[in-house]
C-alpha cells in the first residue's frame, strides 16, 4: 500500500483548517494572558475562562474536520489541562481513566514485542544479518546516549540551577530514601535475562521479553522449514492481532491522555511552573538542544525524510508527553515507523532494544539532575568526577523508560553510591512529573529515529508494502 496518503494526511493543512485552528489557539493564548494580568479580579477570571473554553471548542471543531486521531489527542491534552486548572478536585478523580488506558496498553506491549521480534528474526532467514543489525543498533545507541549525557552536563553547569537552593528539613522520609541500595553492573546484567518468561510478561519487563524473543527466534530459524513454519505462522498471526488490538485501544487514547493531563495539572497546579522554574527551563532547553543539534543532524546525514518523520512521530510523541510513559506510546510508535517505511523486522528489533539502551531523554535528565543534587547540597564536583558519575548512570539507567518517574529510583541509588544527600531530591519531586513528560517524549522520538537510521544503514528503508492492518489503524 502506498505511504503517500499517510504523510499528506498528517502534514497538509488546508486554508479552512487554518481558519479554525489559528483563531482557536489565539483564543486560548488570550485567555491565558487575561488570567495572568487580571490579578484576581472576578470579571477578568470569568472572561479568561470563557475565552479558553471557546478556544478549546474551536480546537475540537478543527479535530472533527481533520478526521484523524492525532488532533483529538492534542485537543484532549489542552482540555485536560484546562479542567485541571479550573476544577482541580474533579480533575484528580479523572486519573482512573488514564490508568485504564495505561493498563490496556500494557496488555499489548509484551505480546507485541514477543511476536514481532520472533517473526522478524525467524522470518528474516539471515541470522548474520540480524547480528549485524544488532551491532549497528548498539553502536548507535551508545553514541547518542553519550551525546545526551554531554548536553545534560553542559546545560546544568551553565545554568547552575541547584546553586543557592534552600533545602527542606530532613525527616523520616529522608532516612528511608537514604537506604536505597546502589545499583551495580552485575545487578543490571542479571536482570537482562528472564528466569520465567510468563513472569517477565506479567511484570512488563520489556528487555527480558526481548532477550527471550531473540533466543526463541534464533532457535526457530535454526529448525527445518517444515517444523518451524507452524510456529512462525502463529507468531505472524499474533503480531497482526496485537496491531489490530492496538487500533481498537487507541480509540480510547484521547480520553486517557486528557485524563492524565487533567490529573497532573489538578494535582500539582500550574503554579508549580514557578517553583524551580530554572531547573525546568534548563531541562527543556537541553532537550531542545539535543533535538536540534544531535537528532536533526543524524536524521539529515542518514537520509531520513525529516518532514515525514515528524508527521509520523507526532502521535506517539504526544501520547508519551501526556502520559509520561514510553510504554504507552510503544505500539503506536511501531506502527508509525512501519508506515514511514521501516520494515517490521527492524522496527520490532530496534525500538524494543532502544527502550533499554537508548534512553536519550532519561540519560540527559539524570546527568542534569544528579549534578543539580550536588550543587544544591554544596558538594563541589570536578568534571572528572561528573564524568565518572555519568558513566555509572549509563549502566544504572537501563530499563527505566517504561515506568513513570522510575528515574527517581536511579537518582536515589546514584546519591547513595556517591554519598550525596537525598534532601535535594525532595525538591525535584515537586516538578518531576513535568520533567518526566519532556524526557519521555524525547525517549520515544529517539527510538523511532533509531529504527529509521538503522533501516537506512541496512538499505531497507521504504522498500516494503505497508501492512493493511497498520494502515487501517493509522487512517483512523
TrEMBL record:
UniProt keyword Transmembrane helix present: yes
One protein family per Pfam: SDF
Membrane-spanning segments: 20-38, 45-64, 70-92, 104-125, 137-158, 206-225, 245-267, 279-300, 364-383
Gene3D superfamilies for the chain: Sodium:dicarboxylate symporter (1.10.3860.10)
GO CC term, one of those recorded: plasma membrane
Localization per Swiss-Prot or TrEMBL: Cell membrane
GO term, biological process aspect, one: dicarboxylic acid transport
Alphabetical UniProt keywords: Cell membrane, Membrane, Symport, Transmembrane, Transmembrane helix, Transport
Source domain of life: Bacteria
Record protein name field: Proton/glutamate symport protein
GO molecular function (one): symporter activity
Membrane topology, as annotated: Multi-pass membrane protein
PROSITE patterns according to UniProt: NA_DICARBOXYL_SYMP_2 (PS00714)
